[in-house]
Amino acid sequence: MLLFKGADGFLQAQYLRMVVEGLEKSLGEPPSRFDFDGSTSSLADLLDELRSYGLMQSHKVVVLDAAEQFVRKESNRRGLEAYAESTMPEATLVMRTTGDWR
Q1: Which residues, listed in sequence order, are joined to residue 61 by a DSSP beta bridge?
Q2: pTM of the predicted structure, to 2 decimals
Q3: What is the DSSP letter of 40?
């Protein structure tokens, strides 16, 4: 799990690209990428994507934009905390926020 925080979207995009390139280099193939909007996505959809196995890819990058909006809802925050205790090695969660993160 990674958290990119800051107002500069360009830097966040660069860091995400670096993560994806590093995974591709270590795995020998590019990871699949799945994007979620924290203001509209459900915890169930996010966790389903993180925990599901792909038929064709060996690793996936799940990007949660507006993560501060997602974790404002206590059940979402608790769900992510539970996931953090037992992450899937086949998935990398990247949370991006330009807002206030606590």
Answers
A1: 33, 92
A2: 0.91
A3: T
